[in-house]
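Checked the freezer inventory, then went back to the computational side. Two predictions to log before the end of the day. The first one is the construct we discussed on Monday; recording sequence and tokens without edits.
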Amino acid sequence: MPTFQYVARNPRGQVVQGNLDGANSSTVARLLRDQGLLPTTIAQGGSGAAQVTRRQNGRGGRVKLEDMVIMTRQFATMIRAGLPMIEVLNILAEQTEKRALKLIMKQIERDVQTGSSLTEAIQKHPKTFSTFYQSMIMAGEAAGMLDTILDQVAMYLEKVASIQRKVKSAVMYPSVVSSVAIIITVFLLVKVVPVFSQIFKDMGGQLPLPTRVTIFLSDLLKDHFIVVPIVVAGLVVILWQMGRRPKGRRILDQFKLKMPIFGPLFLKVSVARFTRTLGTLIRSGVNILNALDIVARTAGNVVIEEAIVKTRASIQNGESIATPLHESAVFPPMVVRMIDVGERTGALESMLAKIADFYEDQVDAAVSGLTSMIEPLLIVFLGLVVGFIVISMFMPMFAMISMVNNK
């Protein structure tokens, strides 16, 4: 009779593991239930047991947004089902696959067991639980609507994850094609052009200008090949250092919003994130000033953050939201007008949701348009570069053939 390794929960919700002989997994499950245990995993033999152990240990790596979405959805479902908080946290810690998140949830469980509130427990892990997440949990605990708030958080995180995937896909394609174009160009200049260059030297005579330019670039790249990666690495370090300083980061963020092609896309993403975050916080009962403070810290762009901070100061002074947003000259006029109407009619939360939906659709359309537009442009660019190199190498041969025919 085969041996099965199982993971189950006893009536107190504690996890127990062990081995049990049975004809099949159904028989083992029945035997466990007869013992008052609730089986969660049953696996046969060595490989299955190893799989159970791996599942309990979890996979490594940093916690991703997708992991937080899944965990938050499960959290909301179990809270709504009426399970005790300690048991919910224990289940989340046991079934999550990411080792980092597993350890964090176990720590949160221990903190709650020792008397901390859920908000206080998650505030100890700011790298995993953002300021937005912490504020939403605080609002949910205060209002006694934790399951509803968690659902709203999960929906918000899903929207953010969806936008991030779309932006990455829009940026990834031209990056890959550009990298391929650079590799092909470098290969031609380093390996192919020098062969023709030697032939032309043996022939003598004045070479056409395009040929001289190509040979010059080839010699420059071949003789100073190590300089190229050093220069690239230097530029990366400079940009990284700029991003760490307030002035430098502002310059970079301003450039992101103004850069051709991708600038409008980044602005739409920022507007969608601003309105979605603010609308979610207001709907959850967070004070407008606290909500704006949270939105500013999670904006992801210094220019947007400065506009939100000015808006918060304006509200503190008794003014409206729309005026400082208009004065910032960052947000599109439609966004400012809709927020103004929502504020005057008392439907700000609804208006923010409509703006977020609209701009998320705009991001979809922008990504599709960029992909369809950039693809032929990059192909044409690659064709021009390679074509220039090839033609410049053949021009002296055409001249030589013409001279032979004239003789």
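The second is the one RB wanted added to the comparison set:
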Amino acid sequence: MNKKILLAALAGCIFSATMFGQPNQTQELVNTIKTKLAYSKQALKKYSWIETQTVFYKGEKKSSTIYQCYYSVDGQLQKVESAGGTPAKTERGIRGRIIENKVDDITAYVTKAQALIKTYLPPDPAKLQQIVAAGTSTVAILVPNQQYKLTFPNYNLPGDQLSISINKSSQMLTGLDVSTYIDKASDVVTFNLTYAALPDGTQYAAETDLVATAENVKIVIVNSGYTLGKQ
């Protein structure tokens, strides 16, 4: 057989193997993600922890709120505001009223942003599987045979995108990125989440940074101090 023909045939076999192997690899990674999400969602119900939420406007810190978090007996997440936070600053006079109105606007926007985050976190394993089944998900190799990033377009809204990074070796989630919007597509909101793990393998959102560029708003949510049982 001509050497060039042989090389072309071998290249075709390698290409075919890659193409046919990719869906299996994608499903394997998705299965790992789904298993880890399901396990952690259930395991977190045994814990209580502290959530610190800080709001920035035009790069300036506006407020910080601390919550004691735990799950009630019926499985509902409870967040109780505790002392130690820093409320927004107030001023007197006309300037004070202008600032107060702006603070009210920011507060309303932050409330919308908080509600938006809840629609993505934690990710719904069933939704992830639906997107994979539709053939629209993609896989990026960050570190060969170790680190992967799976992207799920139109996860919650038309044109949005949710991505999950995973370490295949440790079978641990490492991060999550979302690009979405509030009210209209031009009101772009992005948030990035860093995962951490407890000694029993339970994973949680260690830090979530949400940025709404059009509104000059940034929200940083940090979860820490995990202990077994209600504090």
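For RB: The CA atoms of residues 53 and 118 lie 14 Å apart. The domain at 23-226 is CATH 2.50.20 (outer membrane lipoprotein receptor (LolB), chain A). Let me know if you want it refolded.
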